[in-house]
Amino acid sequence: MSRIKVLHTADLHLGVETYGVTNQDGINSRIKDYLETLDWLVLQAKSLDCDAFLVAGDIFDNERPTNYVISEFAKRIRNLVDSSITVILTPGNHETSSSSRVPSALEVFRALHPQKDGTEIACHVLGCQPSKPGDTETMGGISTIPTKSGNLQILAMPYPRRSEILTSEQMKNRGREEVKKLAATIFLDRIQELARKALPGLPTIFVGHFGIKEAELRPGVKGYLADDVIISTYDLMSKLSDSQAKFGYVALGHYHSPQMPSPNLVAPSLDEDMDGETSILCGTNPCRDWELSSNETVAPDPDSLFRDGKPVRKIQVAYSGAPSRRDFPDGARTRMFMELDLTPEGSSGKCRKVEHSRSLRQLTVDNALDWKEELEAKFLKSEFWRQPYEYAATGCGQEQIEKTMKGPLPIFRLRLPEEARSIWPAIKSWLDTLPMFDKIIAPYYKPSARESQKAVIAQTESPVEAVKSYLDSLQDDFAKTNRARIQEEAERIMQEARVV
Questions:
Q1: CATH code matching the domain that covers 4-353, chosen among 1.10.620.20, 3.30.2270.10, 3.40.50.2300, 3.60.21.10
Q2: Is 105 helix (H, G, I), strand (E, B) or coil?
Q3: Are 412 and 394 a contacting pair, CB within 8 Å?
Q4: Alpha-carbon span 358 to 112, nearest angstrom
Q5: Using one digit for the tens of pLDDT, what is the confidence trace for 402-460?
Q6: Which of 54, 129, 150, 391 supports an S-S bond with 88, CB 3.0-4.6 Å?
Q7: Alpha-carbon span 173 to 193, nearest angstrom
């Protein structure tokens, strides 16, 4: 019986620069962080002897990635293909335009179709948007993809954008929720149509990039994704079950927390510890290893979009999560990828931890009077910080510590209450005496108008000081010759703007 091993990841978001600094080579440090995590995943695919490397959408962070980001990603594709690992990519919402007439950067890889010489091992871009709004017959597709261990059958669908699934006439005089339900119904009908074309006797999976009703989300993210077309796991399984093939796995992207949504379960919103000390495999949809099971069924969803509900065969559904993309509220959450073993009868698999991904850690000063004692307790005595701090105190540099700890050190941010702003210089002086900070971590401070009145982000230096620091970093003839003039001009502008 044919058995195919697949590494499932998603939401690489290559090109993100948030919380990074520009290096001497002109490349943002966060771009390199994300590429290093991808390098680690490529290494895992090789060491696990995978047949395929699957990325379920949002490979790039935006629809116009830089030439550098595209070329660096292409190098990883070539590495995988030359190692006899088939690459499967599907577009997400980030790298696709709101109009299907504007091609995404992934179309370059679809056109070039990178392939290993003398073999059928190649890179495949699957799951295209409709050729025009409402033309659902051109949306998505089902493909038979060659791997070194045999053929893999994939039903791939794009991000369900309402303006592409529906015509303007279909959306006319309908409310937002009504439009979303109509789009979801048409999207699911297209999945059923394609599932009926799937051939029996092949390992078969579904790949998509969209929201699932039962998935867990942080409150802020839920608001951000309020316009998404949402699908229930029951409706999805119901459509995939109407097929001669046995779909063994649903590989999803879009939500960044790794999870396995359960049918007919309404998951609560996650409320992460802002200081990033809470863990990992918690919640109602935890990721767990699973074994092949073809007998388990799912009861009809009372909120199903279809009236002919009946029990259907359960299919394993999983978001692999984003290996690199994160923010401070979920900066400590464990990142994962899925290792699948696929047969024509279904799937078994393991949830594996991403061990090379730079996290984001935040410390909050709650008491302005006892800030030092509080920071000592949170930082110096913290289980997370203790080990790198002790290494730093012995004189080890960042590279040595990361090698010993087998992973990158986090980006650090300090959060101060409004009443603590006046004592920021004292806090900064204390932080500068710690080996952790002057040798390893460049703290990230950013004032933000979006912060509540009770909490603001501290600022390291004034704009004039920033100009001086920039000139110091240049170390060239221009900076030496024009330093005084540029500084005077910066000070004049700040005075005219009456900035304190």
A1: 3.60.21.10
A2: coil
A3: no
A4: 32
A5: 888 888 888 777 777 776 777 778 887 887 777 665 544 444 444 333 343 333 333 33
A6: 54
A7: 28
